[in-house]
Task: structure prediction
Amino acid sequence: MVDSLIGVPGIERTTEAFRQKLVESAGRLGMQPDHLATIISFESAGTFDPAIRNPTSGCVGLIQFCRKAAEMAAKSAGQSLSGEQALAWLGAMSGEQQLDYVVQYFLDVGRGRKGLTLEQAYLLVFAPAYAFSDPSSTAYASGTSAYAQNRPMDVDGDGRITVADISRKITTRYNEGMGRPRVPVGSGSMMAASAAGASGAGLGMIAFLGIGALVGWFVFGDRAEELL
Result:
């Protein structure tokens, strides 16, 4: 039984109920809970806020659902919502509720595949078409809008953003989290989380995360064309 989660930014401010649901959700996917927590921390800029919006793309929530993904989520719930309606619907949920649609997203876009690695799961969020590609595969090349919007990922400046480049961002967040205190799951964890949160809340969190927090908000337009 999982009794703690990786110390990625923001996890210490989540509720006990959310952490328990996260562990349950990872189990439904055959994923390591630490991997799912890392992806959510990265994509939500360290907030774990189901309503958080990317200021550029408008994507929303724990894994930054964009328009097509939000519409897919609504459809899975038996609702016919489009564009902004679907995004607003997701953003109005609690974190625990939205986790159900995070699970559904991975199952839908990953074609039901379970036991994903950290890198595969993150690529399903960021660049679904390349989730199971060779690390040397080029996802975005110089001269395209997608490359321009995500240029910081091209760390060697060769004009290509590869699967390895994209994976490196999430593994860096994971390794940093592994170097921080773990956050309890289960009995008594609420008190521990409250104490941790009080020491770093508000502007303290922003100061700690700095610009690096927004690294999770790379934008390559809308992910819609790669979801199906």
About this structure: The longest helix spans residues 163-178. Strands lie at 4-5, 138-141, 160-162, 183-184.
